Amino acid sequence: MSNDASEVDDLLKKPLYVYDLPPDLLSTLTVRTNELPTPAPTTETTTPDAVESTEKENVIPTSNSCALCQVSFQNVQEHRDHARSDHHRYNVKAQLRGNRPLTEAEFTKAIGEIDESISGSETSESDEEDDEGLRSSETTLVALLRKQAKISQEADDSEAASQRHKGLGKQPLFWFSSPRLPSNTSLGIYRALFTDAEQEEPDHLVESLQKKQLPPIRRQNNAQAAAQPIESAVAGPHIFMCMIGGGHFAAMIVALAPEIQKRPGGIEERQARVLAHKTFHRYTTRRKQGGAQSASDAAKGAAHSAGSSLRRYNEAALEKEIRELLQDWKGMIDTAQLLFVRATGSTNRRTLFGPYEGQVLRHNDPRLRGFPFSTRRATQAELMRCFKELTRVKVSQIDQAALAAAEAKQREATSKSPKPAVQPQPKKPKISEEEEAAMLHTSQIQALIRRSKVPALLSYISNNSIPPSFTFYPADSPQNYHSPTPLHMAANLNSPVIVDALLVKAKFDPTIANKEGKTPFDLARDRATRDAFRVARHELGESAWDWEAAHVPAALSRAEVESRLEREREAAAAEEANRRKAETERLKMEEAAKAAASEKRKNAGGRTLAAVEKTAAEKREEEMRGMSPEMRMKLERERRARAAEERIRRMQGK
Q1: What residues pair up with 175 in beta bridges, in sequence order?
Q2: For residue 128, is pLDDT > 80?
Q3: For position 367, what pLDDT does the model report?
Q4: What is the reported pTM?
């Protein structure tokens, strides 16, 4: 029995990849008939107003304009797309709540402010992971509605009821169970990874999942990869992903078969294999003003400033670059199994879906999907994060009996209690001094952990006599459910220095488990953080804590960790030196071949173009030779101004 439990623990500790599941687990999977509650990061709040707005969206439009949103369209298809957009849905909800509808420019500006506040822009990767639970608990649309309407506690109660109402519809995840797993453990896979035909036959989902399994691919060296034609590289199953918004565009073709990469020291890791990727950015929106220039022109009329002309030019250039890229990738896109696209706003959707000559992406493509969770700025890193989120199996541990009993009790209470005409404003419970102090300690400690302030964190713990068993307050808060203790939070953020300080110096308890039964060590996702737990076990001794209950492996000294890192660094340095040597030899051979060819042409009486023509940089350098720094700057400014005027003149001529 203990062996089976250890095998299950080992199976669930490492992330499960949808397209490369363990065969013994895959053969025992069955589809759950009763759906589980969808995790907060992937759900979008639906209110009774949204139900009514959905009914309005299904009505066939009879004109080429939307009076509510003050937007006009060229054809019926654009009108239908607008009826499904966040802009129209927001205005329907705002009108029903008594708020003023927003124009497209105002809505884009408001969304931009919300995105900066809850989604981040240029934050570090650790900060993004830290705030992911807070950001993903609400969608951008819900956050905007809350900001505009200043929703009270009464509205929050209504929103919770609507969440229960949405639970009756389709959820973004299919849930599976297995006799190899505990009865309260379920595995979730995103519905979007299955085709429409597979979704219509839920009884055959396991068979479809078995057909999706792909053998891993060994990573090739640079010479083999260069010799391999691009057609064979994309012959395997792959998907297309792209995002566009605010002048940012990112696209990626990624293979579904995992790639095995050999790290220094002989360690093998499975990684995603990106076949092609590209990002564009153009200045198309004014800072703190929001909205695309074309949307502003449609709402207020065309502006005549230099900035507006530049933004119009950049919009046209960005559209041209994106469509040329899609045309270059047409072969890979046409053979992709799925297409994941995020495009907000009519301008961005028109850029991707046209209609235009040589159109690659189409609205009616059955492979087309949206991202079933919140996304951030369109970057290569964000696309890779979304790919990992899509293809990673979700693990849920919920007691089905307790859940069913709670739902039955709630339905019974709802049916018995008469609905009052006016809901009284609930009184907020008074907070005791102990609870207030716990909330203060929670906010301060979490902030110090996020910023990796080790000395300040230890000083705060010492000065306030924080016990080793301290847990964050309130315990039922969504952000404290997964990481209830400082050690859980530090391990989840992959911060080995914080883990080391909390264990070795502050003597925090590593045996405390969260509501999912996971100790802090179970949340560590990189080797450095896991090594910090093992080093602490070595330095504190076996008698300090029940390390087996904390799931911490055998002790490891700091010297052993440093020795291993040094070996890996030396192996990496040797590999880099060999690569540089090979590259140097190749360059020498190329230079020798060029010199021989040049000498041959010289003896034949010819002359090279390089001897006659000069590059633009050489001409500018020769022109500015002898000038003072001030004269050089003035000449450069004049050259840039003439170039900008020429671009605007060509654009107006079109």
Answers
A1: 188
A2: no
A3: 94
A4: 0.47
